[in-house]
């Protein structure tokens, strides 16, 4: 089936167009908004015509996941010291995830099917092996980096993590909260209240990655 555009040119319906429209729909309205009927409406076709190119909604979700993963630029880790290259490729995953916040849940819940994403993971494994880590340790490191990346992005997309204190509070309310914490027997939290009230997500992510890399260097040195 084809769709007639505003210019009068008939565009054939194919898997690539369907997935591209699905990515746009998810980016705009979220994963929960994606249905075969809604996707067909986006493309200006009948829902049944989609099944000539994709078997079901699950296949569309896999396609969206792969399309987003395909935006990863593996070349960012082409040169430099192993630490810099690991940091670069981890940052590239973060960049792509934040570029598609509504699709991020798919990236962490569906299997990796993109050749580009698999190449990125393979590149990371090669980097770690060349740095001197054995295969089992490299897998642990890779999973730890993914956990840091996932937690950091989820925290940012969910509006921050301000422990016990709201960063929107006025100085007067913050002082009141500090007094409440101190009176309740939490002096350390009271002292840290002003710092707990703010969260720079990029800084928090880089701090965590820096600690991880420091630990990896020490692990190598101990061997």
Protein described:
The mean pLDDT is 89. The protein is mainly α and 223 residues long. The protein has two domains: 2-68, Homeodomain-like (Arc Repressor Mutant, subunit A, Orthogonal Bundle), CATH 1.10.10.60; 74-161 and 199-222, Tetracycline Repressor, domain 2, CATH 1.10.357. A two-stranded antiparallel ribbon has the order 1-2. Helix 7 (115-131) crosses helix 8 (135-157). Strand 1 and strand 2 (10-12) form a beta hairpin. The longest helix has 23 residues, at 135-157. It contains twelve helices and two strands; from the N terminus they run E-E-H-H-H-H-H-H-H-H-H-H-H-H.
Measured on Cα atoms, how large is the radius of gyration? 23 Å
Number of domains: 2
Tell me the number of strands: 2
Percent strand equals under 5%
Give me the strand/helix succession.
EEHHHHHHHHHHHH
Write out the CATH superfamily name of the largest domain: Tetracycline Repressor, domain 2
Category by helix and strand content: mainly alpha
How many separate helices? 12
């Amino acid at each position: 089936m084809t769709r007639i555009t505003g210019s009068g040119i008939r565009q054939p319906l194919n898997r690539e167009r369907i997935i591209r429209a699905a990515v746009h729909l998810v980016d705009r309205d979220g994963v929960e908004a994606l249905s075969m009927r809604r996707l067909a409406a986006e493309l200006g076709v009948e829902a049944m015509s989609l099944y000539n190119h994709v078997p079901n909604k699950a296949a569309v979700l896999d396609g969206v996941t792969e399309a987003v993963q395909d935006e990863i630029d593996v070349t960012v880790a082409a040169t430099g010291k192993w630490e810099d290259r690991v940091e670069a490729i981890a940052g590239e995953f973060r960049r792509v995830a934040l570029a598609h916040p509504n699709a991020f849940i798919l990236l962490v819940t569906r299997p990796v099917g993109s050749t580009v994403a698999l190449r990125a993971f393979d590149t990371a494994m090669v980097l770690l092996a060349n740095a001197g880590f054995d295969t089992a340790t490299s897998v642990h490191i890779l999973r730890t980096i993914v956990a840091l990346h996932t937690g950091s992005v989820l925290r940012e997309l969910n509006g921050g993590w301000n422990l016990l204190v709201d960063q929107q509070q006025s100085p007067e309310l913050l002082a009141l909260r500090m007094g409440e914490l101190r009176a309740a027997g939490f002096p350390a939290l009271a002292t840290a209240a002003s710092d707990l009230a703010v969260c720079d997500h990029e800084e928090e992510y880089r701090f965590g990655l820096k600690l991880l890399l420091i630990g990896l260097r020490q692990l190598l040195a101990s061997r």
